[in-house]
UniProtKB/TrEMBL annotation:
Name by which UniProt lists this protein: Cytochrome P450 family protein
Keywords annotated in UniProt: Membrane, Transmembrane, Transmembrane helix
Native source organism of the sequence: Hibiscus trionum
Membrane spanning stretches: 118-139, 151-174, 195-214, 226-245, 297-317
Entry superkingdom: Eukaryota
PANTHER family in alphabetical order: CYTOCHROME P450 FAMILY PROTEIN, OS01G0704200 PROTEIN
Amino acid sequence: MASLAQSPSTSSITKIPQVHSKSQLFLKASKVPCVLPFRHIHLRRPSVLCTKFPQWEPSPVTYALTEKAGENFLEKSSELFETLRPESKDEASVTKAKDLTDTTNQPVAEFQFLKWPLWLLGPSLLLGTGMVPTLWLPISTIFIGPNVVSLLSLIGLDCIFNLGCTLFLLMADYCAKSKNVTQASKSKPPLSYQFWNLVATLTGLAIPLMILFGSHKGYLQPQLPFIPYAVLLGPYILLLAVQMLTEMLTWNWESPIWLVTPVVYEAYRVLQLMRGLKLGVELGAPAWMMHTIRGLVCWWVLILGVQLMRVAWFAGFTARARRQQSYADADA
C-alpha cells in the first residue's frame, strides 16, 4: 500500500516536463528574499538607465554646482528662486549702472534751466564791477591827492572788481561742468602753459619793483616818493598777486576755467594801467615813470593777445579730439 501510495506522486513528478523560461527563473529567484525569514539580507536592484526619451517628454534639466557656486547657493537672498535666475553678474552690473545713471541724471536734467540765466548774469557782474567804475566814475571823486586816502580808494575799486571777477569765475565753472554727473569735468592745463604764464606774470611783477629800487637808490632822476609811486602802481602789484593766487588754485583744482582766468584779469589790467597814466598826469610824475607805465600797457596787451591765441588753439584741439572720438565710436 505504501508503494502504491508513493508511486503515483513520483510518476506524476517524472511525467511533468520541467520547462521553465529564464524570465520565470529570474522572477522566482527575485521572490526568494520575500520568503526568507532573515531580514538583514537585502539585494541591490539594478538601476535602469534610459538615454532616449519620447518626443512628447522634455529632457530633464540638470543643475551642476561648482565649488564657488555651492558656497553661495541661496545665500543672502530674500526669494527662493533668486539664485536660480539665468542673469549673469555682468548683465546685473550693467542694469544696475543704467538704473543708477537714470536716477542721477533725472534731477540734473530738471535743473539744467538754472544755468541759462548765468550766461548773462556773470558777464553783467563783470561789467558792473570792473568797467563801469573805471570808465564812468570821475577821477576827482577817487583821487584827492598823493596821500593814503587816494591809495585806499583805488584799492577799494580793485577789490570791487575782484569780487565781481570771483563770482564770474564761479558761474563759469558751474556752466562748464558736464550735464552728466558720471562724466568727469576736470581739466588740467599743460605744464608749458603753466610755465609761460608764470614767466609773464613774474616779468610784469619784476619791472615795477626794479623801477622802485632804481628810484630809491637814485639811479633814476628825478626821484619819485613812495606814496605817489604806490598810488600809481600799488593797486597794479596787489591785483597781480591776486591773479597769481587764483590761477594756482584753478590749476590745483583742475577747473575748466583755467583758460579764462588770465584773460579776465589781463583785460582789466590794461584799463588799470590806463587809469595810472591819467593819475600820472595829475601827479606830475617824471617821464621815466610815464614811459614805464606805457611799457607795461604794451606788455600786457601782448600777453593778452597770446592768451587769446591759446583760446583759439584750445578750441581747435577740442574739435579734433571730438572728431577722433566720434570716429572711434563709429568703428566700435
